[in-house]
Automatic annotation (TrEMBL):
Top-level taxon in the UniProt lineage: Bacteria
Coiled-coil region list: none
All copies of domain HD/PDEase, residue ranges: 19-98
CDD domains: HDc
Protein name according to UniProt: Metal-dependent phosphohydrolase, HD subdomain protein
InterPro entries given in the database record: HD/PDEase_dom (IPR003607), HD_domain (IPR006674), HDIG_dom (IPR006675)
Entry-linked SMART domains: HDc (SM00471)
Length: 188
C-alpha cells in the first residue's frame, strides 16, 4: 500500500511551490518537524507527515474560496483530491483552527463538515506548525506566535486569534514534548 506522503508531497508542491514559494518552504519545514516526532506516532507517523505538508494548501490562490485556509484546504482535499478522511480532518483543524473559525463566525461550519481527529494528532500537527518559521526553519512556539502577531498586526483578526490561542498552542507543544521525552526514556 503506498504511503500517504508519496501522494501528499507532489499535491502540495503542485498547489504551493510556484504561486506561494515561501508557504511551500513552510509546509516542507512542518513536515520535517513531523518526522522528528515520528517515534511517538507509531502507525500514524505517515498520516501526520502527509497532513503537515498539506496543512496550508488552502492559501493556494485557486483554492482560497472563504479566506479561511483550514476550511478551504480541507474542502479541496475532500471534494477534489479524494484524500484520506483523517488527513482532511487534520488539515481542517490544524493549529487551533476552531478558535479562528469562531472569530470568523465559521465554527459551526468547520465542525459540522469536519470532525476532529484524536487529540494527540491535533497536538502533534500544532506542535509541528508552531515550531516552524514561514521559511521552513525550526523555531519555538513563542517566537512563532510573536512572528504571526507581528506580521498580521495585533488588532487584526489573525493577531487577536493567535494571542487567544497562545495558551492552547503552548499546551499542545508541552504535551508533545512530554510524549517525546517519555518515549526516549523507554528501553528498547
Amino acid at each position: 500500500m503506498p504511503k500517504l506522503t508519496e501522494w501528499a508531497y507532489p499535491l502540495a508542491e503542485s498547489l504551493l511551490a510556484e504561486p506561494l514559494p515561501r508557504r511551500w518552504k513552510h509546509c516542507l519545514g512542518v513536515a520535517e518537524r513531523a518526522r522528528t516526532i515520528a517515534l511517538v506516532l507509531d502507525q500514524d507517523a505517515d498520516l501526520l507527515e502527509a497532513a503537515a505538508v498539506l496543512h496550508d494548501i488552502g492559501y493556494a490562490p485557486d483554492l482560497a474560496k472563504t479566506g479561511f485556509h483550514p476550511l478551504d484546504g480541507a474542502r479541496y482535499l475532500r471534494d477534489v483530491a479524494d484524500a484520506d478522511k483523517r488527513v482532511i480532518n487534520l488539515v481542517a483543524h490544524h493549529s487551533c483552527a476552531w478558535m479562528e473559525a469562531e472569530a470568523r463566525g465559521m465554527r459551526e461550519e468547520l465542525e459540522g463538515e469536519f470532525p476532529r481527529e484524536s487529540a494527540h494528532l491535533n497536538d502533534a500537527l500544532c506542535y509541528c506548525d508552531m515550531n516552524t518559521t514561514p521559511d521552513g526553519t525550526s523555531t519555538n512556539p513563542i517566537d512563532r506566535i510573536n512572528e504571526i502577531a507581528g506580521r498580521y498586526g495585533p488588532d487584526s483578526l489573525i493577531g487577536q486569534f493567535i494571542r487567544r490561542a497562545e495558551p492552547e498552542i503552548l499546551a499542545c507543544t508541552s504535551r508533545v514534548l512530554e510524549r517525546v521525552a517519555a518515549a526516549k526514556r523507554q528501553p528498547m
